[in-house]
Amino acid sequence: MSTTPPTVDSLEALLHRCHRAELLPLATILQVRTEGVGLRDLAKALAITLRRAGSHDIANAAFRRGHGRPYEELLRRVARGYDAVVPEAADAGEIERIVLAGHFQRRWDATDIATRTALWQEFGIAAPLPESSAGALTLAAQKLGRSFEYVLSRTVNVVADPGGLALFTLLNLSPLGCVVRPLMVPLLPFLLWWRFRPDERRVAAAVLEVARLRQQVLHRVTIGIVGSPSSGKDAGIKALFGVDTGNISPIAGSTKEVAIQRAPGATALYLVNTPGMGDVVERVTEEARQVLDHIDVYLYVVNAEGGVQAREKADFDRCRASGKPVLALINKVDVLRPRDKEKYLADARSKLGAAEADFMPVAFDPLPELAPGPIGLEPVHAWLRERLVELGKDPDELPALPG
């Protein structure tokens, strides 16, 4: 099984996998209007604007039907600006990582010791300051493993410089322009070429931001915990992830029925706690719905005392209809009589229609007289790690089991 994260094929597809709020910095760099624009339309506008910004406007209009250069071409041009060697077969994700490394090295080499120290501390590595930028990248890659590119992307310092208009403002608006304009006629072809040239600085800034967004998409893990209010979801979140749902404020935009929380201490682990996937999901705000749309795996919790009813079956089927991996968890198995346990579990799995590998008995908060602690957590944790690897996510985003 490959553990290499897959690369999103197109720029627009990548941007559409982001949350809308994550796209706002890129929109600022590219000067794209965001007010009243939905996620899909915003992703499309940003992709087209970036490709156009990296193209000569005249050539773009004449030969590219206004769509601009392919994104991979822009990436290679930006990489050359960092004096980087790009393999011929490199895809967009690989070139972006080369650009991120080049940007880091340029920042490192252009700053003093104090600034380099602050930059090194962003990696969170307890090691002396490396002597060179190349040494810093090598050591960080060794220490951070799969999360290296994600952390590297967070060190990016993006600066967009609009530029390109000062000379034409001087010629067209100032009194000096009346004197200078006649003298510039022979140079008009060059000036037109210069005026409509690709906006290199803005493109470089936008590419760095896209590289950061790609790393966020690849490393973000969103786990949906679904089940009725009596199923024990809160106890499961605490047992599996060490998160006390009563002490963490949900992300703005969720409702009392749907709580979306970022796990403390994790790089990008989100937990979505909802009693169902039916009408209740339709009542959340746009921000919360975007998180729901990006759930990676589902944990569906059933209370063994209540069993599988019509509602449980319907919600479990909705989770599976999303196309995402779903693990059915029969909670509170500690209260089942030993002689009835196997028969009950077989019946519950049959009613849900769950595969044997995607069905597990657990007890997140067992009665003290029956068990000293939660039951069945290790298989659940292993299942989650396997699914994340299959999805190209970083399984190390999962925290170690509490205790």
What are its keywords?
alpha/beta, 48% helix, 403 residues, 2 domains
Task: Walk me through this protein's architecture.
By secondary structure, the chain is α/β, with parallel strands linked by helices. The chain has two domains: 11-161 and 199-217, no CATH class; 220-397, 3-Layer(aba) Sandwich (Rossmann fold), CATH 3.40.50.300. It is 48% helix and 8% strand. It has helices at 11-16, 24-30, 39-53, 57-63, 71-81, 92-109, 113-121, 133-144, 148-153, 166-173, 176-183, 188-195, 200-219, 233-241, 286-293, 310-321, 338-352, 377-390, and strands at residues 221-226, 259-262, 269-274, 297-303, 326-331, 359-361. It has a six-stranded mixed beta sheet with strand order 2-3-1-4-5-6, with helices on both faces. α2 packs antiparallel against α13 (200-219) and α10 (166-173) packs across α11 (176-183). The two termini are 30 Å apart. Residues 1-9, 57-65, 159-177, 190-198 and 247-255 have low confidence and may be disordered.
Radius of gyration from CA coordinates: 26 Å
| Biggest sheet overview | 6 strands, mixed
Number of H/I helices = 18
Strand-residue proportion:
5-15%
In N-to-C order, the SSE pattern is HHHHHHHHHHHHHEHEEHEHEHEH
Q: Under CATH, the topology of the largest domain is which?
A: Rossmann fold
N-to-C terminal Cα separation, in Å? 30 Å
Count the domains.
2
